[in-house]
Structures are given as structure tokens and as C-alpha cells.
Amino acid sequence: xxxxDTPLTKVxxxxxxKALEDHLELRTAGDLIYHxxxxxxxxxxxxxxxxxxxxxxVTVLAQVQGMSVKPMRQRRGNMLEVTIGDGSGATxxxxxxxxxxxxxxxxxxxxxxxxxxxxxxxxxRQLNGPAYQLLSTGATKDDAAAEIEEFAGALIPVYPAAQxxxxxxxxxxxxxxxxTFQPPDDPMPAEIRATRNLVGIGTALREIHRPAxxxxxxxxxxxxxxxxxxxxxxxxxxRRARAAAAPGTARPRADAGLLVKFDAGLPYELTEGQREVGxxxxxxxxxxxxxxxxxxxxxxxxxxxxxxxxxxxxxxAGGQAALLAPTxxxxxxxxxxxxxxxxxxxxxxxxxxxxxGTQLTLVTGSLxxxxxxxxxxxxxxxxxxxxxGTHALLYEGVDFKDLGxxxxxxxxxxxxxxxxxxxxxxxxxxHVLVMTATPIPRTVAMTVYGDLETxxxxxxxxxxxxxxxxxxxxxxxxxxxxxxxxxxxxxxxAGHQAYVVCPRIGEDEETPPKDxxxxxxxxxxxxxxxxxxxxxxxxxxxxAMLHGRMPPDEKDAVMRxxxxxxxxxxxxxxxxxVGVDVPNSTVMLILDADRFGVSQLHQLRGRVGRGSAPGICxxxxxxxxxxxxxxxxxxxxSTTDGFKLSEIDLEQRREGDVLGASQSGKHSHLRLLSLLRxxxxxxxxxxxxxxxxxxxxxxxxxxxLAASVAALVDEDRAxxxxxx
Length: 724
Description:
Elements: H1 8-12, H2 14-24, H3 29-33, E1 39-41, E2 57-71, E3 78-85, E4 91-97, E5 111-121, E6 124-128, E7 131-134, H4 145-151, E8 156-158, H5 167-178, H6 190-195, H7 201-209, H8 214-245, H9 258-265, H10 272-285, E9 292-297, H11 303-316, E10 320-324, H12 328-342, E11 359-363, H13 369-381, E12 384-389, E13 403-409, H14 416-423, E14 431-436, H15 442-448, E15 453-457, E16 467-473, H16 478-493, E17 497-501, H17 526-537, E18 543-546, H18 552-563, E19 569-572, E20 585-590, H19 598-605, E21 615-621, H20 628-638, H21 642-652, H22 661-664, H23 679-695, H24 703-712, H25 715-723
Helix pairs in contact: 7-8, 8-23, 8-24, 9-11, 10-11
């Protein structure tokens, strides 16, 4: 009998078990049984070859349509090119070097599973040296004949695989395991199984791998998705309940003080959204338990102003507030912006300062020794009511007198440990406000940030200009790129400024392809594009570059010059993605825009149109029409609705990483749950979790369920969820 704890060496033998461990980190029967298929194919059905991404590891079901043998140019030998198709007209080329003997196997008309890495050469998509499993018994090796018989007419599981362990090897291992597998006792309470119409765990685990029919596969998936959603929601409901009872320090709003003076001096009215969110935060701060709130807001919606008002409320109540920014550029920008907003209120002790005000201090890694000592002294004795900084705030030696509020800007740019280190600098847990300009779909907020209260700022302040976005298809219409350079020059002549954004800093960042491994060209780099613009395309304009490897003082000098209007064009990487605010910038050209994610593109274009003149964002790409990359760019160009784009972005990313697997370097066990498509299921799981935790807070009456939750959401991931 095999249980989930049985080592795979006892089930599959040492050699196969070692391959699964080395390449897929699968060590036990439980690891393998929970290694679910990515999808299911049937011979004769289409695999959408047009949707394949360059550099993606894929397995496709396709038919051999033709082949040719060509001599290689750079070395002796021949290259076999096999064209495969899915019946829809789309094709893919499989290349084999010095393996002409494969002609005997890969005959025209044969169907097979082909697995490998997608590359691109001269505009054609390729699989270079793919592994394959043919599905026609007459054209296969003898030892595969039995598997081919099983494949024919059945749903074919396609597993997340590795080059050394293709999907059909995993399928064979799973079949061997299922022969002796004894499923665990079902941890799901019987009343929930009955209410939610869930099949037993043993049935679900068998049918997910060897489905008897499509309805049985649906039932298996539904049960296993429910397990995933329920485990996460139980964890979050428990954490939120504990946080609600934790002791904190109330920071109530004062009847008279800095916040009242600040509001009275604002040259414009708060938007309705800013007022509503401000009231939510003010009420949280007044409670004797730590606030833990997520503030979402579109680029330019006024999140920083909301956070300044919250910080002033805490200062009025005798505490200090810290704003943590991910880069020196953004920290410096925040410091200057908040200084300007506060005016005399932020210069207490200076000749022109308000004696009833506070002081604002900047702490970054590039501060000189004397400036650093002075800043840290103000932080330690409480003179600095508001402290703005980078991760330098986390270092030993940065001590607060009474840290009452931590504001984390662009929170996804920080690791869990970094955020927690700043909170630990307070004697009692401080209030925490995390902000993001990356819109988050409701189901993600419910799943990843389910222990945070969420506020949304969707309304833009008056005076913000619209941004028009256009795709520049460089291969199809090269004249469009020439026109883009002219458009930038026109904007500069009209008195405005421009950004040119590149994916890379320099040529040393990308690994060149190996011999006989054709792939797409390296992405464009700041250091390569800058001289071309100065000498050719934008000759005569004042141009400078900005990237993350520059010394902090150089970065600051460039940003100051650009903000002052002394530069016309800034050639930059994504270092300008967040926080950079130059209202005179009206046009942005993003080169190789298909190399960026949807949310990144939305963030980047938010740097233009911040003043009274309309903004233009041009998305340059060599992605062909109909490809997934091109469709992403078309979507970005079609809308400025960040929440709509966030759903597109979610489709492109690995949803299993919501438990922090990418941060922790561990496997995530969210295999099936789709945060985009399973909103109803997640809501139902949350309702059941709330009811169960309300009745049994520590799951003491449900030990099997507690153990199951611990397996899906281990302590590291539970902490990741708790810390937001």
C-alpha cells in the first residue's frame, strides 16, 4: 500500500525517482499525486499553436505535415526540419541537428506529443530538438506501444514537465503509483461536502489523473479547487481574527492640529474618493488595534495625498510615521513632493517653519556620514514626525521614538522580511497602510490580501489629461517607428518632454543563444539606444539616460535636470515605473514593449499626461499579429482601465504563485484554482471558512482539516499571507 508519505524510490525505483526529484522536486507519492496535469488533449483536437510564447516550455499535440533535410552553414552536418500542425492552419517547425534518421519515425500524417522550448528564427516559431511521443502505434518504439493504446480515444493528461522528464514519462509514473495508492481519510467536514456537492478526496485524486469522462474530470477539479481555496481562506480568516484582537495604540484624529491646518491650506478640493478613503483610514487609526489596510489606486489617483493625511493624523496623536519606497529615485521624489505639500508645516524649527509643525526627514543608503547621523538623531528623538526612506530604514541603528504608522509604497516591490523588519521597530505593532498603483482583481485581493481591509481610489483628480496609446508594429510597418521619432521631436518643439523606455541597461544582461539554438534577438538596451538617438533619430535634442546601476547622486542629478526642464528626452529602464512625476512629459515610446508585463506597461505610461497637456504612449514591438504578445499590447492600447488590464495580466502570470512561492523559492500547491475564473467558488469558500472559524477558531475539532491546511499553506506561506 502506498500513502502520501511513501518515498517515490519505493514506488518507481531509484533511477526514475531521482529524475523526478532532480528536475521537478517531486520526492514522495503525495508530491506526485498532487502534480496535476496542466491540461488534457485528445488526438485530432486543435492545440492553439498561435498562442505559444517565445522561450516558453510547451507540450503540443500535433500532426507531422512535412519535412526537409538541409546542410548546416556554420558547421559540418545536416539539419532536419519537421513541420507540424494542429489542423487550424497554424504550424510549428521542429529542428534536429545531425539526426536524419528521425525521418523514418516522423512520417507525414503521424500524430504525436511534442515537448520543448519555443524559439523564433527569421519570423518562424520553432521547437529545437524537441522530445516527442508518437500516437500512431505503427510508427513508435515497441516499449511505447502499450501507452499509445491507452492514449488512443482517451483524454491525454499533459503535465508540467522538464526536458529530461517529459509529460508522457510523468503519466506513466502516475499510472504506476495509482495501482497501489491508498488515499488519505477525507479531511473535509462531511456537512460541507454534502452542502457543496463535493466528491471524496480519493475519487478526486484518481479522476484528475485518469478521468473516465469529462463530467468526472469536472467533479475532480471542482473538489481539488475547493480544497485549495478553502485552505487559503481558513488561514486568512484565522489571521484576520487574531489581528483584530491584537493590542495596538490608538491614534485618533485631533480637533485642531497639523491635519486641520494642512486641509485648510490645500489649493484644491479632495475628490469624493479621497474623502471616503480618508475617513476609512482615520477610523482605523483611532482604534486600539493595528490597522492593516491595502490602498489601491490608479496612477495619479492621489494615493500619496491620502497617505500624507494619515501620517499627519498619527503625528497629531504624538506618534511618528514612516514611508517606505522601493528605490532612491522614488524615495527622493516622495520626500520632495511631501515637502512641497506640507510647506511650513514640515519645517518646524526653521526660520520660515510653522512652530506647531513637524519635520520631514529622508533616509537613504547614499546619505553621507554627517547627514545620516543628523537624520537618524531626528528619527530617534522624535523631532522627525515623518520619515521617508528606502530599505535603508530597515538597517540596525535606525531607531524610532514612537513609530505609529508604516506606509509601504508599491508594496509588491518589497520582500516579506523587509516589510516586517520595519514594523518590528515599534514597541507595539504599528498601523500599516500598503499602497499600490497596480490594480488588483477582486479575487486576488480576496485571496492574497484577504487579511487586509481594502480601499480603492478609482477617481482621478481634476486636471489630469487623457493618455492615448498606440501599437507600433515594427516588422509590418517600419515607417511607423520613423514617425514615432518625429512625433517625439514635435512634442519637444512644443515645449514638452519625452521618455524612451528600454527593457535592458546593457548588453551584458542577456545570455546569448547556444550554437544551433536560434532565438529572438536580444531586447534593446539603454546604453545601445542612447548614442543612436543622440547621433541620428533625435539629433540636436538634450538627451540623458537613467537606470538602476547608476550611482545615486548621478540618478538624482538626472532626475532633477529632467524635472527642471533642462533635458528634453530621458532614455530609461523601468526605474521610472513608479512615482516619477514630471507634469511636462507628454510622450513615451516603449521599445520592445512585448518584453514587459501588462501591469508594467500600464504603470509606465502613467508617467505621461500628468499635466494639462494630453499624453501619448507608443508601444513598439516586433511581435506578429495574432500572437499572444501582440494581443497583450493591443489590449493595453485599447483601454486605460487598470482593473480590466489587471485581469489580462493575471491570465499571463502563474496564478499558483499567490502563496508566495516565487518569494520563498518553494513550490506552491495552488495548482488548479484560477483567481480569475473561480471567483464564485472563492467567495463560497470564504463564507464556509468564516463560519467554521467562528465556531472553532483553532480547528481543534477538525484535526484532519488542520493538517490538510498546513500541507497546502505551510507556516512560511501563512506568514507571507499575514504580512501582505
